[in-house]
Amino acid sequence: MKALVLEDINRLKIKEIPVPQVNEDQVLLKVFTCSLCRTDAKMYQQGQRDLVLPRVLGHEICGRIDGDKFIVWPGNSCKNCEMCQTGQENLCDEMQVLGFHCDGGLAEYVCVSKECLFPVPESLPENIACMAELLACGINALEMANVFKGQSVLIYGGGAAGLLMALAALSRDAKPYILEINPDKLKKSKAFRRETGIEDVSNDMQFDVAINAASSIETLTDGISRVKKGGTFCIYSGFTGDSSVSSKLLNEIHYRQLTLIGAYGCKSNQMKEALDILDKYQSQVRLLIEEIINLEQVPEALERVLSGHVFKYVVEFNK
Ligand SMILES: [Zn+2]
Ligand SMILES: [Zn+2]
């Protein structure tokens, strides 16, 4: 089969490799679409904590088995540890992730654990369904921040991750606001924001919850100042660079009784909720597709993903 293999940092090759062999817990999924994530681009250029080389990348996968359409929760946890037993399998130390520890979806076929498959409604096209994983990560952030009906949620970053998170907030009847400092990116999301009714942020607004879908440390300092007393800031995106946090900022958390919480990845049950949201907002989510590409175009697309100015590249295998 044809696969895109990351042989080493900065060395990505289209190769002919054997179709993978499944074990008794797995099934072979024929990949139809796999969308590219910023993490794929980072792995390509600088590696990643959980990356084991050589590797077929790709963890935002939609495919078919015997004609039925599925998306994939890319994790595979041990099911026995304290984290797994308490419904926090995304924190399992033994976690094996498709496209990180084992081969992912940028290939014609991928081996998937049966329990990681979620059926996709026939009405939902593969090139939208593959975004379920990214959306599920946004749902996880909203759950960690305990966002409920009627709350205002400030989301830093108007890329696909932030905009999908905003959709998830809308679907739980919260009020999302997007803060994007790059005017080009803001312009790019204009149609999406208009069609979904996501409002702009005015300077003096205060929010129940703030979440960063952007990696600058300023999102934290600014976000802490913009949440109401008793509010929550959720760290969804890891921070880049080496910055220290001032005690003045920490005292803000103390005096105003704020909650600071982290969110990383997603849990399998959040994939199902993500599918329902994608199905409901199909026409809007379509606006987040930068381009539908083939496997050969991936290395070039990953370069552009790193620029941070593009929406989702979706690799289609019959293209
Ligand atoms: Zn990802
Ligand atoms: Zn575990």
Describe the structure.
With 319 residues, the chain is of the alpha/beta class. It folds into two domains: 2-134 and 266-316, Quinone Oxidoreductase, Chain A, domain 1 (Alpha-Beta Complex), CATH 3.90.180; 146-262, Rossmann fold. It contains twelve helices and 15 strands. Strands 3, 5, 6, 7, 8, 14 and 15 form a seven-stranded mixed beta sheet that branches. Helix 4 (132-144) packs across helix 5 and helix 4 (132-144) crosses helix 10. The longest helix is centred in the middle third of the chain and has 13 residues, at 132-144.
Provide keyphrases for this structure:
319 residues; Quinone Oxidoreductase, Chain A, domain 1; Rossmann fold; 2 domains; seven-stranded mixed beta sheet; five-stranded parallel beta sheet; 26% strand; binds zinc ion
Question: Which structural class do you get from the secondary structure elements?
Answer: alpha/beta
Would you tell me which CATH topology of the largest domain applies? Quinone Oxidoreductase, Chain A, domain 1
CATH class annotation of the largest domain? Alpha Beta
Low-confidence stretches: none
- Residues in β-strands, percent: 25-35%
CATH architecture call of the largest domain: Alpha-Beta Complex
Q: Averaging pLDDT over every residue, what do you get?
A: 95
Shape: globular
Tally the structural domains. Answer: 2
